[in-house]
Amino acid sequence: MKTVTPLDLRRSLGSILDAASAGERFLIERDHRPVAILVSVEDGRRLDDDVEERRKRRLAALDRLQALGDEMRRKNPGGPSVVEAVRADRDRDDA
After folding, report:
1. What is the pTM of this model?
2. How many Å from the N-terminal Cα to the C-terminal Cα in the chain?
3. CATH homologous superfamily of 2-46
4. Could you give the CA distance from residue 71 to residue 65 in angstroms, rounded to a whole number?
5. What are phi and psi of 80, to 5 degrees?
6. What is the pLDDT of residues 45-93, one digit of tens each?
7. Which residues have C-beta within 8 Å of that of residue 28, sequence separation ≥ 6?
8. Where are the domains of the chain?
């Protein structure tokens, strides 16, 4: 990824846009801090998920978490809840 400043962008907008449309990516920095990334339209479309598809993925992830919790309760009926088990695991790792 090539790094450019806003001044570089103003000076060479046409050639930078040509390169971006050909697949090159540009990191735009101001005062040595990244502020934006310029990518081709095709790359941008891949980054911008379909809202419905994103919703389906999130619901599927919640369903998998629910199934995991159900399995834990089935294997250990008197044991901790999923939330309690995660908290205990985190506490153990922090110690």
Report:
1. 0.51
2. 40
3. YefM-like domain (3.40.1620.10)
4. 10
5. -70, 160
6. 887 767 888 889 999 999 998 888 888 888 888 877 777 878 888 888 7
7. 3, 4, 5, 6, 9, 34, 35, 36, 37, 38
8. 2-46, 49-94
- The rounded distance, in Å, linking the Cα atoms of 61 and 53 is 12
Nearby residues of 37 by Cβ (< 8 Å), 6 or more positions away: 1, 25, 26, 27, 28
The 33-38 sheet, strands edge to edge: 2-4, 26-30, 33-38
Cα(59)–Cα(67) distance, integer angstroms: 12
Coil, helix or strand for 66?
helix
